[in-house]
Structures are given as C-alpha cells and as structure tokens.
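Z., the sequence and structure:
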Amino acid sequence: MALRVIGAGFGRTGTSSLQAALERLGFAPCDHMGEVFKHPARAALWEEAVATRARGAAFDWERLYAGYQATTDWPGAFFWRDLADAYPEAKVILSVRNPEGWYESMNRTIWAIRRDPDVGRRVAASLGVHGDLAWMPSLVDNIVFEGTFRGRFADKAAAIRVFEEHAAAVQATIPPERLLVFEATDGWEPLCRFLGAPMPAEPFPHVNDAASVEARLREGSAGAPPADDEFMRRMAAG
C-alpha cells in the first residue's frame, strides 16, 4: 500500500483536523507527529532520515510509511520534496492559515512544550506512557526548530518568513493538478473534490485548537491527568 496523500503544511495549520478528515475519507492510517508518541521506535528512523538527507543520500521511505496511506504534520512535512519524488502518484495537500495566527498558536503550544520538555513527560506519564521520551527534544529540534527555522523561531518575523517561503516553495514545485492549498475552515467540499471522495454527512472535524492544548499543558504542569488520551496522540501539532 503506497502513500496516497502527502501533507506538506507545517504543524499548527490544522494538521490534526486534516489527519482526522483523511482517515474519515478512507485514507487511514494517516501519519502525524502523534504517531511517534504512540510508537517511539519511529523516532530513531526519523533521525536516520534527517541524517541521510544531510549526507545527500536517498532514504528508503517504506521503512517509515509501509502500511500508511497518508501523512500530515511534521515530521513528514519536513520531507515534502523527498516524499513527493518517492511517491509520484500521491496527491499533495498544503495546509495553511493566517501567518500571524499560526505563529501565535505555535508559540503557545509546540514552542512552549519545547521550552519545558518536562511538561510533555508529565502529561505522558499521566496517560500511562512511561517509556523513554529522551528522543523528543532532539527530534523536535532536528525537524522543527533547527531543521526548519534554523534556530530563529523566537524571532517572529523570521519564523513567519520561513512559513511563507515554505508555502511559496510548495506551490512553485508541485503541479497545480496534484496540489490542494487547504484551510481547515474550507471544510469537506474542496478536500473531497480533490481526492475524489464522497462528502461525509457529519461536520468537518476540528481538533486540537491552541486553547485546548494550552489547557492540557496547564494540567500536565500541575500533574493533573488530562481528560482523554487524544492530547498525547495529537499534541505535537494541530
């Protein structure tokens, strides 16, 4: 089963909602940073993919994507060019949002977790995830804060420039017939039309907004258990 949909959008552009929507449309399972928390052995493979690309060599993507039909969010979005080449029949979805809103959401969630990784560990423990999470800071840095933002995420103007340049690069590289530029507020219609999928009757999923993540971070910091285990599955980006 080859990868059929490649999500090229950064985290905090509705990638959790897009993951849920794709799985509802039959493109399941869909990869997402949350999969690394569920299957931490994947972290070493992602680190290997980063190192392989740095050497200018080709990575065997089936080692990560065998059994998956779609991917959204980081880490996959970091490798969007590689994946588009490796899976030439796959369609590409660039999830986007207002740059100012995106930065504020990142700053309040993923960046907050990165500044205090112990928060993530306490939340994991409250969910019964007691494995070694030592991979988390390294992988998030190598993929996101160093790999994507070159250590300048705290500089808002620089981070937004990277965000906008990324969107422009995707649109300049992927042929229009293969690409959908998508906001979660667009709902089912453009997504279903692009994928040739029937329109579901239920509302489009809206998962993991910044306010809900912040609430879970406060609960994790206080040592209180979160309300459900969706947070751990999806907290890395939304």
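The first strand starts at residue 5 and ends at 7. The CA atoms of residues 36 and 42 lie 6 Å apart.

Let me know what you think.
H.
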